[in-house]
Amino acid sequence: MAQGTTKLFNLSERREMKLKTLKDLYRDELRDVYDAENQIVKALPKMVKAVSSPELEKALQEHLDKTKGHRKRLDHVFKSMGETPKRKTCEGLKGLLEEGKELK
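The chain above was modelled as a monomer; its predicted structure follows.
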């Protein structure tokens, strides 16, 4: 391994990644989280429409509102780094949402 390079094993993608700095790792993880928040923002409105419990509907709507806030904060983090927000597929959440579709 080249000097100054950290090798990490990304379990969600089952591949090795070469990251040269902690900032590279930080950026990579932010992109993963940014994608997760966007997946949630897309999925929650469908869940809100599908539930019959008013309490659950309210809880899901509150969660959606908070998640939109998380996404907005991530936009600010990327901006503070001088970067445009980019997504890296969060395979873990993608899998959870796929499993959730089977519950219909």
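The mean pLDDT is 86.
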